[in-house]
Amino acid sequence: MAEEATTTPRNKRRTPEEASIDPAAQEMLTLADLMGLGTAFSRADDLAPCTIGAVGMCCSLCAMGPCRLTKDGGTGICGATIDTVQARNFVRSVAAGSAAHSDHGRDMAFTLKAVANGEAQGYAIRDIAKLRNVAAKYGIPIEGHAPEEIANELADLYITQFGQQRGSLVPVVRAPERRKKLWDELGVTPRGVDREVVEALHRTHMGDDQDASHLMQHAVRTALADGWGGSMIATDVSDILFGTPAPVLGEANLGVLKADMVNVVVHGHEPTLSQMMVAASQDPEIIAYAKAAGAEGIALSGICCTANEILMRQGIPAAGNFLQQELAILTGAVEAMVVDVQCIMQALVALAERFHTKIITTSPKVRIKGATHIEFDEAHALTIAKDVLKTAVDNYQNRAKIQIPDFKSSLIPGFSHEYINYMLGGSYRASFRPLNDAIISGRIRGVAAIVGCTNPRIRHDFNHTTITEELLKQDVLVVETGCSAIASAKMSFLLGEAGLDRVGPGLREVCETVGIPPVLHMGSCVDNTRILTVLTQMVEEGGLGDDIDAIPAVGLAPEWMSEKALSIATYCVASGVYVMMGGYNPVEGRGDKVPDSVLVSELIGDGWEETYGGRLEFLDDPQEMIRRTLAHIDAKRAALGLSAYDPTQFGRSGDARLDAMEEEMGEATLDERRAALYGQVPTS
Ligand code: MSK
């Protein structure tokens, strides 16, 4: 792919092709222009970001300000330096991100409790093996106990993690030994989820913590409460209740919408409602109701991480990632967009008014003015899901002109850490040994986790797919979550054979041998904890050092936009990962030349690397992210004493060898081919 500008030109409307690389998105943006309708893309063009706030030089924490610290050595009215202001802003963002993920985890824990007590209509414990496995990690008795009893105890334990005041969050026991010791020594082991978030808000209130290093230490503790706390709980409970993901065939992009069916798009993050919507949409009563309205049935699809939750478990199609929420409405074919929490644009309501689409909010925590509210409650989950679907069906008759872009790609999602473990070794010797060995031999150069949002200030999907495409050529195994995974799905990187012609020779051999796509879709945003688990299991397997920071691995969020992404990045760095994020650096501003001051952007780079072995950087250019990824992976390989990456060593086995032989041998007989392959003299 040619190198092209990826950031928003200021004060100029981009063409659809400049705004997105996705042809479906381009078609809808063209339609929006024709209809004179705005989207996040056009609003990003019209609204220049605040250059002072963007780099963390504005403090609005009290009514003496807001103070803009643009002058060298300048301070706020209270005397706060730019370092203090940047650190406080950063801590607050991490606290918001950690709170969002963790509150999701809390709701999942309460749902598990309700299911265990038979108080949640339509739900069941789907993965008893995972329930037993997780419970056993915490010493919950499992032998001779019914799943409901175990679930009850696990739910109680998980619920206490939010209000716990002292000690350590229990999922932290799953981290590598050396890492846990480091966190204890540094005083960043999270005590309780709510405690860390509340303390983050307290410390950043006017007149409290005013030492940037000390503040940033609490950013780490608050983020770890997300990654090794709230998010990990969310992933565990989702798997227990809805099934641990395993490969399944799915589809992605706006072309999954159906012209002759009632289209219902679920959007947001929590799987409790969306899973029930899947069940309700397959109910004969609901299908009959849709047919009576003149439709062929109900077509359920998803946007953002709710899409990922039902895509990787049931193969329900993803209509798109974050920036496609408005574009789905522009098709005119969506009867209802059903939203729960996070990443939902308020602009949906005004846009939907120009069409017949109903925006239905469902969470007691989220209302949007002008939207229809049908509150979800797990005690009556199936009944509510059916009511929502009937509302959508009733709206089908109001549909006018539709334009569904004819673009969609197949994909195979569902690579949970449990499945990766199984696929590498099989039922009897499930193990990460083959993955470690492939890295040690150089067949796989290293691992990159590419995650996170899309952002209208960055050319939609461009950074995600440019980086993915090049790293695959360089034999880097790529795992993805969130909106990044949907971007790669649209490029067919998540479909076994379809992506292998664009993959380096060593990685291709591994993909062919194991039977996996070159990019592994590991789930939603909270499922970044699956990546932490994989890294921990690689450490435990041996041969790649004794902690996560030794592994030749990198994390990238090249089109991030949400505070959750800052929390994810921070807990990954504190776990030992080098993380690069796209776009501007929120702690970059340097008006302050006070001697001995700690510049926060230096702290999150060199400072955190010295302390945690991981570092956080913000970069505009995807080519530079690729260069730094490969340099880091090669440096880690060298530090482990592994051979330097050499692609010429690989690519002569498996399908590639057969293909080459096919070309060379043309009309050769079977025996001649056998002889060429195995060096044997034909015996027949
Ligand atoms: S949905 S947080 S835009 S990845 Fe998880 Fe996508 Fe980012 Fe929302």
Mean of all residue-level pLDDT scores: 92
Overall CATH architecture of the largest domain: 3-Layer(aba) Sandwich
Kindly report how far apart the N and C termini lie: 50 Å
Q: Summarize the amount of helix as a percent range.
A: 40-55%
Question: Which runs of at least 5 residues are low in confidence (pLDDT < 50)?
Answer: 677-684
Beta fraction of the residues? 5-15%
What does this structure look like?
The chain has 684 residues and is α/β, with parallel strands linked by helices. It has four domains: 161 residues, Substrate Binding Domain Of Dnak, Chain:A, Domain 2 (Up-down Bundle); 149 residues, 3-Layer(aba) Sandwich (Rossmann fold); 198 residues, Rossmann fold, CATH 3.40.50.2030; 30 residues, no CATH class. 49% of the residues lie in helices and 10% in strands. The protein is built from 28 helices and 16 strands. The strands form four sheets. The protein has a six-stranded parallel beta sheet with strand order 6-5-4-7-8-9, sandwiched between helices. Strand 11, helix 19 and strand 12 form a beta-alpha-beta unit. Helix 5 packs antiparallel against helix 9 and helix 6 packs antiparallel against helix 10. It is globular, with a radius of gyration of 25 Å. The two termini are 50 Å apart. The C terminus is likely disordered. The structure holds Broken Fe4S4 cluster.
List keywords for this structure.
684 residues; alpha/beta; Substrate Binding Domain Of Dnak, Chain:A, Domain 2; Rossmann fold; six-stranded parallel sheet; 28 helices; binds Broken Fe4S4 cluster
